[in-house]
Design brief:
The chain is of the alpha+beta class. The chain folds into 7 domains: about 30 residues; about 325 residues, Methylamine Dehydrogenase, Chain H (7 Propeller); about 140 residues, Methylamine Dehydrogenase, Chain H (7 Propeller), CATH 2.130.10; about 120 residues, Immunoglobulins (Immunoglobulin-like), CATH 2.60.40.10; about 180 residues, 2-Layer Sandwich (Heat Shock Protein 90), CATH 3.30.565.10; about 130 residues, Rossmann fold (3-Layer(aba) Sandwich), CATH 3.40.50; about 120 residues, Arc Repressor Mutant, subunit A (Orthogonal Bundle). Helix content is about 25%, strand content about 30%. The protein contains 22 helices and 80 strands. Strand 2 and strand 3 form a beta hairpin. Helix 19 packs parallel to helix 22. The longest helix has about 80 residues. The radius of gyration is 60 Å and the shape is elongated. Keywords: ATP-binding, DNA-binding, Kinase, Membrane, Nucleotide-binding, Phosphoprotein, Signal, Transcription, Transcription regulation, Transferase, Transmembrane, Transmembrane helix, Two-component regulatory system. InterPro entries: CheY-like_superfamily (IPR011006), HATPase_C_sf (IPR036890), HATPase_dom (IPR003594), His_kinase_dom (IPR005467), HisK_dim/P_dom (IPR003661), HisK_dim/P_sf (IPR036097), Homeodomain-like_sf (IPR009057), HTH_AraC (IPR018060). Its EC number is 2.7.13.3. This is histidine kinase.
């Protein structure tokens, strides 16, 4: 007995120990495994057909089906589709069960009406039930359906078990094999009343009946039919529900819950709870449905039993209206669906966010009011909750949870007071309340009734309109209070009293403007941050205790990008990384990083709605232990990672009390949990338990609309049956060409938070980018698509933005209209061929005639065009010939008629002009002959080896003087300094001359450039200009004979061409085995590029001549330079000009007739007019009377001699006064001669001719004698100074080859025209010839000295080309410079010989 007692005792001790350990384990994990029963209720208000739920099922597509006593509801997460006897041929509205087979049929069990088969593809409903004369099932009262692993359907009724073999499931008439209870057969079912059928994951079919549980045994060779076996000798009557989990198969009924483990082949009782239905959630909680609510059971490993964790009924859970639970069902993703008797369907997501609620309930220990204004945890672990209308709540014991156990406290017996702020200060708790704006304290060592009014006791004036909204302690002796209307207050303990200072009302703080203080923060460094209605206030640690502290106010500035985002500041929070986070009332978040301060001040980072926030109104900010900030707002709670700035948003669908939270109502508990107060209670949570759901649901198409009409299966639209199957089972739809506007609706079947699911879709073949949408607009809509093949692709994510990698596809074919089908196109082709045949058959002759006429017309137009071009050519040639012929004919006429009267100098000038134009005429004729020879192919190439660069340089120098005269910047760019090869000098010279002449012709004060380089075995020469350019449409005709660009008018070109120059040039280039191209742009310029081969092989068929030394190659130059219009006019003046002045018209006429044959005569009737005429025409002589009105002869003489422009003019006075005094007066004024009236004609003419000829002799002597001085050709000191100044200017610039007439005129201070006139009168030279004459005279002087060579002198006097210098020198002095130098040396030798003798 003793031993037995000891054994029993030990067993009792062991069980007690295990029980205590179990209870301890439960207590330790109570908080960790706390159930968050966040639910959503669906009822008839949401579209459910009826609130009595009898069965719940999820099909293979993921859609939910709910059976009721009034029909069926199908649910896609957003809307219900209902089936009833009235709409879908159900034989009864009382649904008992569902089962889907392998043929996409949904079988529906009915009470007292058999079964129905709903074809999910077509929507066809077929009913099967017993009737008179036809017994399909053992009974019409069906309670359960199941599909075994062979695809057979089992039907459990109240009067037996039925089996429909797989091959029967698609037939219109079915046969069922029936099984009944037989007490004499142990292998039959235990009872005909089958309550539950279940097929587990191992393929076992379980049969639950009124009298127990059996497993089905498949037929075998020894046993041809199904048999049934009990798994235990222990009876388990009756079976209410069968479910399975990883642990095994659970069975529930009135006698508790049994668990069968197939691996161990054990059946054991795991709970005594009596459930009508059960399931195991993903957190391994067992949920059991009873008539008294929902039970949460948790497995206790110590005892091996499931123990009650939580009981939810209508008394403790307002959302549960009805306690009778009829069905608990877990879907594919672990969401629990709870069916009730009259309360609809409850959805519970065990994987949802574990946000827990605290709110007012019928429990007296719940919080007193749901509108929360402040939350605080003190050093003792007590939780204080301030409400808006329910006074103060305190929870002293948190071990039993945070949702109940609160005590209500009031101030001055005011039960509806609002508590805005709670904090600790030294050994006291401080409370800011609304009523009368008072602040109370509570000593930690006193009970909960020892509140003191510190405003009364410490001389702080209470203000009911300015309550304390924020309170912050600053050490043991200082406290800060932010008021709503009275600004910032500072309290300092001194000798048992508190001295208060109103900081806001000091002169230093915006003159008292900042009165609404919402939050106060003292950062790690002791600095004070104040959130106000006017912005963010910063008071440094050094300033905050001063009587009038200095501060910084940071406000929003729309002109400054990084300013504060909004002025009204609510929370101010210091994060663990040192950043200051500021929440605003409309501007989102502003973040200040102390490490980013620069010289321009502080800047704020912004996070707003556009960056991912759900609202720009921020209410509170807290930080968890993992460097995440949790932010409450007007639209839920947001988590922001401090490092990555990743944003996650949570709203009411995640279990929050509401989307709206209260100002500054947040608290972090010592255990790391966070609490946020809102308008409907408090949410608290453990941050690391708020994790993303990585499960993704199925995606289905739910509806198709075409032309705004919803399409159902077998609906006909314009004769087209679009859907032959339900849209969920359709792979492709075919639309007519006029049905090209459609919409497809879709649903993601993750039911956890369906309204947070996201979608994106793309119509391949039309869309280039994905289109993203949300749950409110789950539809892809397209209009007016073109015929063709498209594929609609849709993707879905869950509420945590986790996207399903699989897409849903729907192929869409829009047919072409009949007139664009292949048969129509074949018909069109046949018709076209037929019409072409008819056309060709009957219109060929007409076409041929028309073609012939067109050819004739084309030939006529071509001939006319050629005729016009030739006519234009001959017109241009005529013009080109007439110009030099005129310049030959006129001088010859003058020489014939008056040659005897001309001096030798004048004759020489005419001869040179004739010679020059004869040469010009010869060049034109030669060019025409060359062009003709080229056209006939008679021109041959004669090449010899030489240096291309040297030859091009000589061409360049031949044009250099001309370029200077034309004021064109002319340059040579040599890329390769020596290029040896064969070329025809004559042809190349003509090519380059033509191209350069064209370039200069169309370039005004611009640039012309020659470029030469060797590229491989070719030489390339480019002639570039910045002239008028050629438009693109003219370029292709540019090298055609006789073609001229019409837009190049006479006004633009300096001379008009013949139209054969470029054509001839191209022919010469091609004769030289080269190529020519042109690039041109209007008003930019042109570039002609010619390319020739260098190797001897290219010229093997051409005539080769012996090369001469390169130094002997001489490019012929024009002997006469081109003259400007002014200079040529001055040069061609043949008659001397004379001005006659007399107030007697008869005398004027007489003098005119006398002088007109030999002089160009200008008349004036007084001295003033004579003076003006003299300045205008610059005459060779002035003949004037003395006695005249306005201005007499003496005054005229004096004025002329004083005028620098005309002072050189000879003057003869006609006078009737023959006295010596009058003559002396005239000579003093500068008169050259007197003629007395009446005058002798011959004497007068002799006087005039003598003065003119004397001037010409002096001018010639000045030009040809190298030692002649200006004083020798002038008659006045003014003229002498004029010439001396000009000579000095030229000599100063004598070595500058670019020194021009314009520069000389500019240096002297006159115009080129006046300068030419003056020099012509003084020296018989134009200004250009004058400059050249001075250069040549200085060259002669230098050569005469015998110290310099010819080449040295050439460049010393400003000539850049030696050949040109020699030509000019010989022309001026009659001998070449080398002879001049040799003569000089010869004379010196003769002198030396004479001296030696």
């Amino acid at each position: 007995m003793k031993n037995n007692y000891s054994i029993i005792n030990r067993n009792i001790i062991t069980k007690i120990t295990l029980l205590l350990l179990s209870l301890l384990t439960l207590q330790l994990h109570a908080e960790e495994n706390e159930i968050v029963f966040d639910i959503q209720l669906y009822s008839t208000k949401n579209g459910l057909v009826q609130n009595d739920i009898t069965s719940i099922y999820q099909d293979s597509k993921g859609l939910m089906w709910f059976g009721t006593n009034a029909g069926i509801s199908k649910f896609d997460g957003y809307s219900f589709t209902n089936y009833s006897m009235d709409t879908h041929q159900l034989t009864s509205n009382i649904i008992s069960c569902f089962q889907e087979d392998q043929y996409n049929n949904l079988w529906i069990g009915l009470l007292n009406s058999g079964i129905c088969r709903l074809n999910l593809e077509t929507g066809e409903m077929t009913s099967f039930r017993n009737s008179q004369g036809s017994k399909i099932l053992s009974s019409n009262n069906v309670h359960s359906l199941a599909l075994d692993e062979d695809g057979n359907l089992w039907v459990g009724t109240t009067k037996g078990l039925n089996c429909l073999l797989a091959e029967e499931l698609t037939k219109d008439k079915i046969k069922a094999k029936k099984y009944y209870a037989n007490h004499h057969n142990s292998k039959s079912i235990l009872s005909n009343h089958v309550t539950k059928l279940f097929n587990d994951r191992n393929g076992n079919l379980w049969i639950g009946t009124k009298k127990g549980l059996q497993i089905t045994i498949k037929p075998s060779n020894n046993q041809p039919s199904y048999t049934f076996k009990e798994i235990s000798n222990t009876k388990i009557p009756p079976i209410k529900d069968i479910k399975e989990s990883e642990e095994g198969v659970f069975f529930c009924g009135p006698h508790g819950i049994q668990l069968f483990n197939e691996e161990k082949s054990t059946l054991r009782k795991v709970s005594t709870a009596r459930f009508n239905t059960l399931c195991i959630d993903p957190n391994k909680h067992m949920l059991g449905g009873t008539r008294k609510g929902l039970m949460f059971m948790e497995y206790d490993e110590a005892s091996g039993l499931y123990v009650q964790k939580k009981h939810i009924d209508s008394e403790n859970f307002d959302a549960l209206k009805i306690n009778i639970i009829t069905e608990v069902y877990k879907d594919k993703l672990g969401v629990i669906w709870i069916g009730t008797k009259g309360g609809g369907v409850i959805k519970y997501n065990p994987n949802g966010k574990r946000f827990k609620d605290i709110y007012k309930t019928n429990d007296k220990t719940s919080i007193s009011y749901n509108k929360i204004r402040s939350i605080y945890e003190d050093r003792k672990g007590r939780i204080w909750v301030g409400t808006q209308g329910g006074a103060l709540n305190v929870l002293e014991n948190t071990a039993e949870g945070l949702d109940h156990g609160y005590k209500k406290l009031t101030f001055e017996k005011i039960k509806t007071n609002t508590i805005f702020a709670i904090t600790e200060w030294d050994n006291e708790l401080i409370f800011g309340i609304r009523k009368k704006g008072k602040v109370y304290s509570l000593d930690f060592d006193q009970d909960l009734k020892g509140f003191k009014d510190i405003t009364k006791e410490n001389i702080l004036t209470a203000n009911e309109e300015s309550p304390a909204f924020s309170i912050q302690s600053d050490g043991k002796d200082v406290i800060w209070i932010g008021t709503y209307g009275n600004g910032l207050l500072r309290g300092v303990k001194k000798e048992g009293k508190i001295e208060w200072t109103n900081i806001t009302n000091t002169k230093d703080l915006q003159n008292g403007k900042i009165k609404l203080i919402r939050s106060i923060l003292i950062d790690t460094y002791g600095n004070l941050w104040v959130g106000s209605s006017e912005g963010l206030v910063f008071i440094s640690r050094d300033q905050k205790m001063k009587e009038k502290p200095e501060f910084e106010l940071y406000q929003h500035d729309s002109n400054v990008k990084n300013s504060l985002s909004y002025n009204y500041v609510l929370p101010v929070f210091e994060a663990s990384n040192g950043e200051i986070w500021i929440g605003t009332m409309g501007g989102g978040l502003s973040i200040f990083n102390p490490n980013n301060i620069n010289g321009s001040g502080i800047s704020f980072e912004h996070i707003k709605i556009k960056d991912g926030l759900p609202s720009n109104i921020i209410k509170a900010i807290l930080e968890d232990d993992y460097q995440n900030l949790w932010i409450s707002s007007n639209n839920g709670i947001t988590k922001i990672n401090l490092d990555s700035r990743e944003i996650k948003n949570y709203n009411i669908s995640d279990g929050l009390q509401d989307n709206e939270f209260s100002d500054l109502a947040g608290c972090k508990l010592k255990n790391g949990d966070l609490m946020f107060g809102g308008v409907n209670g408090i949410n608290y949570f453990t941050p690391h338990e708020i994790v993303d759901d990585y499960l993704v649901g199925d995606l289905v198409f739910t509806e198709l609309s075409v032309l705004n009409k919803t399409i159902h299966v077998n609906d006909t639209l314009d004769g087209n049956v679009i859907l032959k199957k339900n849209i969920q089972y359709t792979q492709k739809i075919e639309l007519n060409h006029n049905q090209n506007s459609f919409a497809v609706q879709f649903s993601g079947l993750h039911f956890g938070s369906p309204y947070k699911n996201k979608y994106k879709y793309k119509l391949n073949g039309f869309d280039k980018e994905w289109i993203t949408t949300d749950a409110d607009f789950r539809i892809a809509k397209y209009t007016n698509l073109s015929p063709g093949n498209y594929t609609l692709e849709v993707k879905a994510s869950n509420g945590d933005n986790i996207w399903n990698p699989k897409s849903l596809f729907l192929d869409i074919e829009i047919a072409s209209p009949w007139w664009s089908t292949i048969w129509a196109k074949i018909l069109y082709a046949i018709a076209i061929i037929f019409f072409v045949y008819l056309f060709s058959r009957f219109s060929l002759i007409t076409v041929q005639k028309r073609h012939q006429l067109e050819l004739e017309q084309f030939e006529r137009e071509k001939l006319e065009h050629l005729s016009q071009m030739k006519l234009q050519f001959f017109t241009n040639i005529s013009h080109e010939l007439r110009t030099p012929l005129t310049l030959i004919h006129t001088p010859i006429e003058q020489l014939i008629s008056k040659g005897s009267a001309y001096s030798s100098l004048e004759k020489e000038k005419y001869y040179k002009l004739i010679h020059k134009n004869v040469n010009h005429l010869m060049n034109l004729v030669n060019q025409l002959l060359d062009f003709r020879k080229m056209e006939q192919g008679h021109m041959a190439l004669q090449v010899k080896k030489g240096d291309w660069v040297l030859f091009t340089e000589q061409i360049y120098h031949s044009f250099k003087e001309f370029a200077n005269h034309e004021r064109v910047d002319f340059s040579l760019d040599i890329k390769t300094h020596s290029i040896r090869g064969f070329f025809d000098q004559d042809k190349l010279k003509k090519i380059l001359n033509n191209l350069l002449s064209n370039a200069f012709k169309f370039t005004y004060a611009g640039q012309v450039k020659i470029l030469i380089e060797q590229v491989h075995e070719d030489v390339i020469i480019e002639v570039k200009d910045t002239g008028f350019g050629i438009s693109e449409e003219h370029l292709k005709y540019l090298f055609e004979p006789f073609y001229q660009v019409k837009s190049q008018s006479k006004e633009k070109s300096k001379s008009e061409g013949t139209g054969i120059g470029l054509s001839f040039t191209k022919s010469l280039v091609e004769l030289h085995h080269g190529s020519i191209t042109v690039e041109s742009e209007k008003n930019i310029g042109s570039t002609f590029k010619i390319q020739f081969p260098l190797n001897e092989v290219a010229y093997e068929n051409d005539v080769k001549i012996e090369a001469v030394p390169e130094e002997d190659i001489v490019i012929e130059y024009e002997e006469e330079e081109e003259l400007s219009a002014q200079e040529e006019e001055l040069s061609l003046t043949t008659k001397p000009k004379i001005v006659i002045a007399d107030d007697n018209p008869a005398i004027l006429d007489l003098l005119y007739e006398l002088l007109k044959d030999n002089f160009k005569v200008y008349k004036a009737d007084d001295g003033e007019k004579a003076f003006q005429l003299a300045k205008e025409v610059m005459p060779n002589l002035i003949l004037s009377d003395i006695m005249m009105p306005v201005m007499d002869g003496y005054e005229l003489t004096k004025k002329i001699r004083e005028d620098a422009q005309v002072c050189h003019l000879p003057i003869i006075l006609l006078t009737a006064k023959n006295s010596n005094d009058s003559k002396l007066k005239g000579y003093e004024y500068g008169v050259d001669a007197y003629v007395t009236k009446p005058f002798n004609t011959e004497v007068l003419l002799a006087r005039i001719n003598t003065l003119v000829e004397n001037r010409k002799r002096l001018q010639k002597n000045f030009r040809t004698n190298i030692d002649t001085q200006p004083s020798e050709v002038t008659f006045t000191s003014i003229d002498e100074r004029f010439l001396n100044r000009l000579v000095a200017i030229v000599e100063e610039n004598i070595s500058d080859p670019k020194f021009t007439v314009e520069k000389l005129a500019y240096e002297y201070g006159t115009t080129p025209l006046r300068l030419n006139q003056k020099l012509k009168a003084l020296t018989e030279q134009t200004a250009k010839i004058f400059i050249r004459n001075i250069r040549l005279k200085r060259a002669a002087q230098l050569l005469k000295m015998g110290r310099y060579g010819v080449s040295d002198v050439t460049y010393e006097v400003g000539f850049s080309d030696l050949k040109y210098f020699r030509n000019c020198f010989k022309k001026e002095f009659g001998v070449p410079p080398s002879h001049f130098l040799r003569n000089k040396k010869k004379k010196e030798e003769e002198v030396e010989d004479a001296e030696a003798e």
